[in-house]
Amino acid sequence: MVARWEYHVEVIGSFWHAPGPEEIQQFLTESAEDGWEPVELASIQNGNRMVLILRRSVEGYRRKKEKGWP
């Protein structure tokens, strides 16, 4: 069986404020609770902004939703 994924791209930080380790950790923790796992992390704009690419299994997420999960 071939794994099926859905992807999400999130930009954190701003032009003036780089995300701190706590902000990145909090975002990743909250995303993991919804089934997302990080695939790639890249900095842009001199390191003040970060692009996070996340994925989650389509099948696993559907099973959770069917069980009444958000």
Describe the model:
The structure is a single chain. This protein has one domain (5-65). The chain is built from two helices and three strands, in the order βαββα. The protein has helices spanning 21-33, 58-66; strands spanning 5-13, 37-44, 49-57. A three-stranded antiparallel sheet has the order 1-3-2. It is elongated. The chain starts with a strand and ends with a helix.
Helicity level, as a percent range? Answer: 25-40%
The average pLDDT is 83
For the termini, the CA-CA separation is 26 Å
- What is the count of structural domains? 1
Strand coverage percent: 35-45%
The major β-sheet equals:
3 strands, antiparallel
Described by the principal axes of the CA atoms, the overall outline is elongated
* Spans of at least 5 consecutive residues with low confidence: none
How many DSSP H or I helices? 2
Strand order of the largest sheet: 1-3-2
The ordered string of helix (H) and strand (E) elements is: EHEEH
Structural class call reads alpha+beta
How many beta strands in the DSSP annotation? Answer: 3
Question: Looking at the chains present, what oligomeric state does this protein adopt?
Answer: single chain
The Cα radius of gyration reads 14 Å
